[in-house]
Amino acid sequence: MRYSISESLLSKRNYVFLINTDNVSYPKAVLKKFSDINGFEAETQAMQALCKHNIAVPTTLLIEEQSIVYEHINGKLLVDYLDMLEHDKHSDEVFFIFDKLCQWLAECYTALESEYGCEMVLGDAHLRNFIYSDKIYGIDFECVKEGKKEEDIADLAVFTLVYSPMCTQQKYKLAAHILECCNRYMQLNAQLIDSEILHHIKTVEQRRGISLPKNISHNLSSVLYLQQEL
40, 68 in Cβ contact below 8 A? Predict the structure, then answer.
């Protein structure tokens, strides 16, 4: 397959490009050039495992050297839905889509554990790594590693809450919704979620040089304790 670069796409770790190809079925695609071999190998292995279990990910069109060409998914990054959240007319749609994300995560973890023989996590679970286009697609797997799913779920909840504008009422509701839905599909460990939320809050505070409300962890993790008491 021959291709030409159309534009550069945002990526912190790698070189990612939107490309035009001579493939009639996939005239547009995404070229991902990995900055290190470990990330390349981790993503290749994870993608093969997920495809084997029919988890929604972009089709792999070409693998060469330390690069992968993926199908281009014409959809919206989940992080962009956070901008819609503060408008009441869109909030139901956003909550529906995030429920779909939680279903996708449950299926993803089951598939990875089946293939790797142990509990695995994405390791970089933030909303820029998911696309919605009639269904959820995962698009970044270079950080997949052994771990507890509560690590990822807490990361997603905190990421949602601190996305600008931070800690709004709607953000609290959506972060709690993520925990509730994930618990419904995966039966989370509430104590582990609590400790992981605290860990991610501290990470955000240190990285951004800010102080977040002290009750965030309690407000979020209490959702699970209440749900598990019912």
Answer: yes
User: For residue 89, what pLDDT is reported?
Assistant: 75
Dihedral sign of CA atoms 21, 22, 26, 28 in order: positive
pLDDT (tens digit per residue) in 122-150: 999 989 999 999 999 999 999 999 999 99
Q: Could you give the CA distance from residue 143 to residue 2 in angstroms, rounded to a whole number? A: 29
Best CATH choice for the domain 3-71 from the list 3.30.930.10, 2.60.40.1180, 3.30.200.20, 3.30.420.40: 3.30.200.20
Closest CA to 112 of 162, 59, 183, 55: 55
228 has a pLDDT exceeding 60: no
Query: Alpha-carbon distance 135 to 131, whole Å?
Result: 8
